[in-house]
Amino acid sequence: MKLGTVKATVAMADKIGYIQAKSWQAAYKGIVPAEYLATFTSEKRADIFRKVMPARSEEFYLFSTHDQPSGMAILGKARDEDLPDTTGEISAIYFLPDAWGTGCSVPAIWFCLTRLRELGYAQVILWVLKDNPRARRFYEKAGFHFDGAIKEINIGKPLIELRYSFTFPS
Questions:
Q1: Which pairing describes strands 68-77 and 59-65: parallel, antiparallel, or unpaired?
Q2: SS3 sequence, the chain?
Q3: Is the dihedral angle over the CA atoms 29, 135, 165, 5 positive or is it negative?
Q4: How many helices (H) and strands (E) does the chain have?
Q5: Which of 115, 120, 127, 167 has the smallest count of CB within 10 Å of its CB?
């Protein structure tokens, strides 16, 4: 699967918002309350991205398959205070449901890891919902492991997130 990758600009906020909203609505169905997911719209997400992209230090990426936008990622320095400055984070990586199972997420995760390594990070973390076994299996196949850190978030109801870590070989 050939995956196109571009560093996203604010002009791409509509595409990124659409991808994130549609992927959340599909991936978290049955995990996150339907009432909450119904409020997680493309328009609202795009508005948020238009505001935060210029103000944040993270890098935003748009992935495409068959010349059509199909995925997005946000990466940068890890936000967790208990981690050293040599830790990066994939704070978001999502694909439209039509792209699931096509193999495009594998080059996307490797792109993110490669980019974070280029930025000088020795380790990478991400947070995944405990109740999302599909995503957990994907990250484990990519070399991530649960590092023991847990946090509770509230997205329509309290949910548990697990921190997964990846360490680059020396």
A1: antiparallel
A2: CCCEEEECCHHHHHHHHHHHHHHHHHHCECCECHHHHHHCCHHHHHHHHHHHCCCCCCEEEEEEECCEEEEEEEEEECCCCCCCCCEEEEEEEEECHHHCCCCCHHHHHHHHHHHHHHCCCCEEEEEEECCCHHHHHHHHHCCCEEEEEEEEEECCCEEEEEEEEEECCC
A3: negative
A4: 5, 7
A5: 120
| Nearest to 7, CA basis, from 85, 105, 112 | 112
Q: Please state the pTM of the whole predicted model.
A: 0.95
> Does residue 46 contact residue 13 with C-beta atoms inside 8 Å?
yes
Q: Residue 165 in contact with residue 123, Cβ under 8 Å? A: yes
Q: Please give the Cα distance from 22 to 20 (Å, whole number).
A: 6
> How many alpha carbons fall within 13 Å on the CB side of residue 87?
15
Contact indicator for 139, 128 with CB cutoff of 8 Å:
yes
Place of tokens 């697990």: 162
Tell me which DSSP letter residue 122 carries. S
* Structural tokens at position 125: 């973390």
Domains of the chain: 4-167 (3.40.630.30)
